[in-house]
Structure formats: structure tokens, C-alpha cells
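Feature request, filed as a ticket because there's no other form

It would be nice if the structure record came with a short human-readable summary line next to the C-alpha cells. Right now we just get the raw output. Example of a typical job, pasted below so the devs can see what we mean:
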Amino acid sequence: MRRIDLKSRKEKILGTIVETYIEEAKPVGSRTIARKLHFKFSPATIRNIMADLEEEGYITHPYTSAGRIPTDKGYRYYVDYLMPEEGLTPQEKKEIIQEYKTVEDISEIMDKTSRLLARLSEEAGIVVYPCLKKSRLKHIELIDIKDNSVLMVLITYSGLIKNLILRFPHPYSRSQLEKIGNFFNAELEGVYLSEICKYLLQKRLSDDFSVYNLFKDAFSILEEAFKKLEEERFCFEGATQIITQPEFEDRVALTKLLRLMEEKRLLLEIIAQDMEEEGIKVHIGEENNFEEAKSLSLVTTNYHVEGNTVGALGVVGPTRMAYAHIFSIVKNVSEILENILQERRL
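Raw output as currently delivered:
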């Protein structure tokens, strides 16, 4: 958003309205602002500035209340230009790291992360699992089952285990599957899943690649498997913390929120779009494409392993959220998660 020419005192008053409303969840009046600003401006001056801010679309007043609340435009200006930087204390970071000490596999790590985000933010936490195609292969097992079907058990170095039922127009014998499985495990251990097809094609072109028929069968199995790896997995925790917020005492707003809780894939679509860009992203109210999310804000960021984006995480809550604190939570949890996954050789 392009920064417009708000004078310094307008920014002070807008920032005070946003921060006070986030904290108290009720309209903010001129006397409250005067007190918060240590009476640098008179209530009359503050009321005039509030009138200007309202006319410009940064604040509004609900019903007949004399106080004002931020609009989505006001929140956006605050986040982009006025929000102070916050950091977690060393003790808070230590507690987060300690939470991961007892987890054993990737599912536990993702579940723990979403719960941490929800607990620390007092909103809802969402974590998109590492994309399997961006994980390293550790082992593949191929098992013949009936009706021209094969069970592929795929294990990555991060501990992700994926069972895939693959169906083919012709059967594979147990000995064929054993040879192909041995070939996979000998040639592809440690290779990123997204690079496997490219790796095999290069291998096929090399002089020492003499098992062409085996390659054809292996490639056919991988192509079928990769079709089934597209589905994203995610964890979502803390829905009840959002529902109990005063914003959702209104039946219409609550109905939309409950619909979104049932259709969490809508949130996943927003996060998937965000994964194309780096840094912390925030969607505020009407900026969201889906009607069910227009009373909510999402703060998201990617997490990486070896410099590659493998997943994303974030916090979901009403537009009246503690943005500075949540930015800090999202940033720190993502960094700690990256270190955990790096240690496990994702």
C-alpha cells in the first residue's frame, strides 16, 4: 500500500485507536486517546482529527457509539507503517524449543507447531505439512496386492511415511517389484522427490544405463505415485479461541466463521498463494477473496530446509488481533521449526 500523507499527529492517534481497540475490544473515545497520549492533544483537537480519519476511511463508529474502531484500511496502514517491532524473550524461545524435545516424527512436529501457534497467539494456528515432493527419499517398498494394484510405502528422511495404492493396466510380479524397489533404493536414496524424474531421465541418457526395461517400469510407477502426492496436508488448532472472541457474538459473523471451520481448504488456498513469496504476509478482512474469511486476518510465513521452501505456517483470528505480537510469534516459530527439520534431514 502506498504511504499517504498522514501528518504525525494523525498517525499517533490512528495508532492509539488501533492498539487500544485491539487490547480492550470496545470503541475508543477522544478522552481515552488523550489519556493514552499523556494529554499532548486536547479532546477537541483529537475529535477533529478523528473526524478526518473517519472521512478518509481509516476508522469508523459502530451504531451510535461516540467511540471509534479501526477499519480494514486502518489496520492495513497500521501494519505497514505504524506497528512496532516486537521480539520474544530468550525464555519464551527456550520454552518453544523445549516443546519439541519429546516429538518423534514429522506428524508430531506439525501438530505441536499448530498447537504452539494457537497457544502463544491465543488465536488459531495453521501449519501446512512439508510438501512431499520437496522431501528427500529414504526408502521405498513396493508390495503386490490384488487387481493389478501395487502398494507403495514411501519414507522420507524427515520421518514422513506415505502409503499409496497404485493401479496399472497390467500386473507386476513380486520379483519385478522387488527389482524395481531395489533399483529405487540403490539409485534414489537422498534425492529430493521433486528431482527424481529428472534424475532418472539423466541416468537413462548416460552410457552406463543398461536396464532400459526396468527403467520404463520404474518410471511408470513413479509417474502414477506422483499423481497422488499433490494433496496438501495441514494442521489447524485453536478454533474455539476464535469463536469466543466478542466479534463473533453476532450470529451472521459466527455462521460464516463456522462455515470456514468446516471448509478449511479455503484457508489453505490463501496460504498456498502466499508460498510464492517470501517474508511474513498478512491478509486483513476484506482483502480475503472468500466471503467466509472477510472478518478474519491471516498472518503467514514460509519455512525452509536447506534454503528451499517446504511448507508454511500462520495464525488466523479476527481483524482485531495483536499484529506486532503475532508477527513475532510467526517469525520465531518458523525459524525454530526450520532448525528442527534441518536436524532431521528433511
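Something like this underneath would help us a lot:
The radius of gyration is 26 Å.
Residues 79 and 323 are 7 Å apart (CA to CA).
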